[in-house]
Amino acid sequence: MSKSAPAPPQKAALKQDPAPRSSVFSSLNKDVPAGLVVFLVALPLCLGISLASGAPLMAGLITGVVGGVLVSWLSGSQLSVSGPAAGLTAIIVMAIQTLGSFEAVLAATVIAGVLQIIMGVVRAGIIGLYFPTSVIRGMLAAIGLILILKQIPHLLGVDTDYFEDMSFLQFDGQNTFTALAGALQSFGWGSALIGLVSLGVLLLWENVLAKRVAVLRMIPAALIVVVLSIAMSALLDVALPTLRVRPEHLVQLPNISSWADFTGVFTSPKWEAFMLPATYTVAFTLAIVASLESLLSVEAVDKLDPQKRATPTNRELMAQGTGNIIAGLLGGLPMTAVIVRSSANINAGGQTRMSAFVHGLLLLTSLLFLDSILNRIPLSALAAVLLVVGYKLTKPALYRTQWKLGWQQFLPFIITIVAILLTDLLKGVTIGLVVGVFYILKTHYESAYFLRESPELQQAGVYHLKLSEHVSFLNKASIVRMLEQFSPGSRVILDGSESEMIDYDVLEAIENFRQSAADRGLELELRGIPQVEVMGH
Fold first, then answer.
1. In-domain check, residue 158
2. Whole-angstrom distance, CA of residue 314 vs CA of residue 320
3. What does the alpha-carbon distance between residue 346 and residue 299 come to, in Å, rounded to a whole number?
4. Contacts of residue 354, Cβ cutoff 8 Å, sequence gap at least 6
5. pLDDT at residue 20, as a whole number
6. How far is the C-alpha of 330 from the C-alpha of 220, rounded, in Å?
């Protein structure tokens, strides 16, 4: 058998470094506007996740800055954005209760970062390659639906829950559908007006104006919306005070007016916590969940990337681990690669890691200088941006494509969507993965062998059972079941002459059948199948 040809050098280089370093600076005209859009989306998310986690308000911003400024360069992904993740909020809340303080959780975050680096060194990132495409597409579609459902209340100026609450059961006691129903019954007219106008401007800008006027493509639609929303909010304050946007529906960035305010932002870990066993339990949980979320996110980003670049998963784990160590030492929340901000980056036209870096620099700048301006941005305008991102993730064409691929692809896809909508990201993906694995097992079960009843010896009942090229333990059940169905007097030819690999479990089952064949009145001929020693014989 001839050996397969080695991969072309260009492809090998592509997997190791998806984009040459020189190209990072060649797309600034697209990366800078995209970074601005990601910044506008990330700012309220960082603050909201801090509030939901029970952490200091600035903790989320610190992590956003570290994720943008540092991890963007350490990661092998060109388009992924790292920062505080909604999926970790429940873990952080419980960790603060368990360890007694947020400072102790910072110690656990540092340890979690070290564990992630170790996972990358031992090449544990390969687990990210085992998620079926149907499950990843289901995850993206579910996130798109969640963004739409969760941001409608913010668009209408009703929901005061934090901005990126991605779980079905919210921290304010409601769930996704009750919050949506409440928003449709009673909403803030000022926020709703700004939100709907912002949504209309986004759609008009992207689908009509930018296509007709080339120069407009260089201006992010989200920036236009933000400027317009600030102006509309100011106009309502003066002209129609009854419609003014309430403070809880504006971006709320803390004011830093002195060096003391700036240094007060940072919190050191509680060093005594490094001696507590409970700290390591929390750290292990954070490391596993954060690593899974990051691997899922970069896998999804690679599928959304128009250039189809591949992210080195082990490098990603080490990058996230380094980011968590730095964030923990500075007083930040644990981080992951986050799909919502990464999707916004791709939709805004980001080309390289420079867009994520720009978003990090803007977060740092906003922390120091821009609080008075940014605190005037209505959340309804940012919700409009996320609604458009959500729609692009869950377009009807995606569902049609998955349906045409058949039940084996469609069922894991749709079950993943429903499970994520009714639980959370990790639980939903796990359920979808179980369904996907079921179909993988079913495929292996059905492809273990080819059975042919010899036509020239049909009266004699001769059966030729030819094994597949690769026979693993997953094929054992189907082979054993087939062997049990032959009636006495049959002649069975079990042929493994073209099999390159037969798992020991299958060989053991065949040996058991060989030893019992005579007692069952069967004549058995083995071809190319080695005999193995069976326990008890």
1. yes
2. 10
3. 14
4. 24, 25, 27, 28, 31, 32, 35, 72
5. 44
6. 32
Give the DSSP letter of residue 207: I
- pLDDT value of position 122: 93
Q: Are residues 410 and 465 in the same domain?
A: no
| Confidence (pTM) | 0.71
Q: How many residues can be counted in the chain?
A: 537
Query: Number of structural domains, the chain?
Result: 2
Residue 351, in any domain of the structure: yes
Write the CATH number for 463.
Answer: 3.30.750.24
Residue 221 DSSP symbol = H
The C-alpha atoms of residue 398 and residue 403 are separated, in whole angstroms, by 9
Half-sphere exposure of 264 (CA within 13 A, CB side): 9
Given a contact cutoff of 8 angstroms between Cβ atoms, the answer to whether 377 and 230 are in contact is yes
For the chain of 537 residues, list the mean pLDDT of each consecutive stretch of 10.
42 41 72 91 81 82 95 94 84 88 95 96 84 83 83 78 59 67 75 92 86 78 87 91 85 76 84 93 91 89 88 94 96 92 89 95 86 84 84 88 87 91 81 82 60 52 81 76 83 85 84 87 88 63
Same domain, 371 and 478: no
Residues 185, 272, single domain; the answer is yes
Phi, psi of 337, deg, nearest 5: -70, 130
456 and 310, same structural domain? no
365 with 285, same domain? yes
**What's the rounded Cα separation, in Å, for the pair 222 and 224?**
5
The candidate with the shortest Cα–Cα distance to 424, out of 178, 170, 168, 172, is 168
Q: Where are the alpha helices (DSSP H) in 245-276?
A: 259-263
> Following DSSP, what letter does each residue of 473-485 receive, concatenated?
GGGHHHHHHHHTT
The answer to whether residues 207 and 238 belong to one domain is yes
* Tokens linked to 381: 């305008």
Distance CA 428, CA 415 (A): 8
Amino acid at 290: A
**pLDDT value at residue 369:** 80
Please report the pLDDT score of residue 22 as a whole number.
44
> In this structure, is residue 511 part of a structural domain?
yes
Q: Are residues 366 and 510 in the same domain?
A: no
